[in-house]
Design brief:
This protein is an alpha+beta fold and about 130 residues long. It has helices at about 1-15, 20-30, 80-105, 125-130, and strands at about 40, 50, 55-60, 110-115. The structure holds zinc ion.
Length: about 130
């Protein structure tokens, strides 16, 4: 049990913390494309990982497991506490959708980048989202 708990907190740190590896990859990419951004908009619904005030655009970088993405990684079943995780991820999905709606209502555009998207070339997507 102890081991499972430790494992769980490791996973939680990996997927929920700020400044995760996927975030750093995306930041570097976006910075390299010449865009300047702000981080962790705590005044905005869902605290977007990156946001662009003048453009009213926000980017979330979501871990597939934690946010319940319908991909291989997101569908992975935890070995322990399955009911706990299923319920928690379901709540996360509901909360994510609510935050997106709130941002749209305030006139923000939102791009969600999934952890599994990092394998792709994201430059065209980011450029078309952020514009010039
Ligand atoms: Zn995914």
């Amino acid at each position: 049990v102890k081991e499972a708990k430790e494992k769980r907190s490791q996973i939680m740190r990996a997927v929920k913390g700020k400044n995760t590896a996927p975030e750093l990859v995306i930041r570097k990419l976006i910075y390299g494309l010449g865009y300047r951004y702000r981080l962790h908009g705590s005044h905005l619904p869902g605290k977007p990982d990156m946001y662009f005030t003048g453009k009213k655009k926000a980017i979330f970088i979501h871990g597939c497991f934690w946010h319940g993405h319908s991909c291989k990684r997101g569908n992975r079943q935890p070995l322990t506490n399955q009911a706990y995780w299923t319920a928690k991820i379901e709540r996360n999905k509901i909360r994510d959708n609510k935050n997106l709606t709130l941002l749209f209502e305030r006139g923000w555009s939102v791009l969600v980048i999934w952890e599994c998207d990092l394998k792709k070339n994201l430059t065209p997507l980011i450029q078309s989202f952020l514009g010039s």
